[in-house]
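lol forgot to send this yesterday, sorry. struct tokens for the thing we talked abt
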């Protein structure tokens, strides 16, 4: 039998559809703790380091036999080479249904799933789900043009998607200066000639040209308004985009099962007050608005949209789920809630902010390393508890 590879998309579809497979992650325990595969359904996953296979091969093979049984084994590592080596060991020991992830965890961390949110309309609004980062970007397509919101650094995906749709990427918007991943807007400005738009409150010191947003202005294509709503708090320049008066691309300000953290910039008291004011305004918005967040905490937040899973919910549902947060009626108590649920931000966030502002350059390999790992942008008791359990 020849050992074969599988793609990140194939892995996601297997797990989404409930295929009875065993995932063997052969990275170090530290790397496994930082980022592991997550999916809509429970599945079998085990971490046995590649180095353990080198040193105690027989014991590792027995562990695989114990946890996997007769299931197909799908192996992954950082880039693919170590996983292939372990595949050869398992094949030598009688395992027959083995494959390893092409591109390793880096491939899992960057691939995107497009979901059409509004079929049958005069425009197309897409959510691009990034399972490896638990994040979402968006595209508005109309009249031969595509506007992007919070694109990731996987710019090839967006360029290929635009080519497939036979449209031009005309604009790319940022909801804020990202800290948890390398943003793709600047690269798309260079690669596709797209106009880069963002709030001056976050990008005033950026070392590249961009168009400062105006609060309340409309940047949508003809017939589909895209209204700017400054929603500071997660960062001073956090911005939400109201599309067609129906969809609110809320960035890291409003999540389905949490709200954005106001402590990542080291100005927790000032930013907490700004976020409190923003959430007070959000409470007064139309409850029928569909919230489109830039991040999700788990696949439990996903809902079915025309047979596909997507992260979208009416504002009324978001307010109800986060009632304990939105019911806080003064800034002092809100700050106390934030401080009680603060977590240490990853060290790489400071570097990522500099890269996204054009203040620092790193190699593509370093970008991949910095960009790995699930986001930690939510402020909620459950998020703090989850981090404590994983540490």
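and heres what i got for the seq, position by position
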């Amino acid at each position: 039998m020849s050992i074969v590879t599988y793609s990140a998309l194939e892995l996601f579809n297997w797990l989404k559809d409930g295929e009875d497979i065993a995932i063997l992650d052969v990275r170090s325990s530290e790397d496994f703790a930082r980022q592991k595969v997550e999916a809509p359904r429970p599945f079998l996953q085990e971490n046995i380091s590649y180095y353990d296979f080198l040193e105690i091969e027989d014991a590792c093979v027995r562990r695989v036999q114990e946890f996997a049984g007769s299931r197909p084994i799908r192996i992954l590592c950082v880039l693919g080479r170590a996983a292939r080596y372990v595949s050869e060991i398992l094949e030598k020991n009688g395992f027959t249904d083995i494959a390893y992830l092409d591109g390793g965890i880096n491939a899992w961390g960057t691939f995107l799933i497009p979901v059409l949110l509004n079929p049958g309309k005069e425009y197309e609004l897409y959510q691009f789900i990034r399972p490896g980062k638990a994040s979402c970007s968006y595209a508005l397509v109309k009249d031969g043009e595509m506007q992007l919101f919070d694109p990731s650094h996987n710019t090839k995906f967006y360029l290929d998607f635009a080519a497939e749709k036979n449209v031009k990427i005309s604009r790319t918007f940022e909801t804020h200066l990202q800290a948890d991943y390398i943003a793709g807007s600047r690269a798309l400005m260079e690669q596709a000639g797209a106009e880069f738009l963002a709030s001056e409150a976050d990008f005033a010191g950026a070392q590249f040209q961009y168009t400062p947003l105006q609060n309340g202005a409309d940047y949508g294509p003809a017939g589909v308004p895209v209204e700017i709503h400054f929603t500071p708090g997660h960062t001073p320049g956090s911005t939400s985009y109201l599309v067609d008066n129906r969809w609110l691309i809320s960035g890291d300000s409003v999540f389905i099962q949490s709200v954005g953290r106001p402590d990542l910039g080291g100005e927790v008291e000032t930013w907490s007050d700004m976020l409190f004011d923003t959430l007070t305004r959000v409470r007064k918005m139309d409850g029928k608005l569909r919230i489109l967040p830039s991040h999700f905490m788990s696949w439990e937040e996903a809902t079915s949209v025309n047979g596909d899973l997507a992260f979208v919910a009416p504002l009324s549902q978001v307010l109800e789920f986060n009632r304990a947060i939105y019911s806080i009626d003064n800034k002092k108590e809100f700050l106390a809630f934030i401080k009680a649920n603060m977590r240490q931000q990853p060290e790489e966030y400071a570097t990522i902010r500099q890269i996204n502002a054009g203040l620092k350059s790193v190699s593509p390999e370093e970008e991949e390393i910095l960009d790995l790992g699930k986001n930690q942008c939510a402020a909620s008791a459950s998020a703090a508890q989850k981090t404590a359990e994983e540490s």
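The longest strand covers residues 135-142. anyway ping me if u want another try
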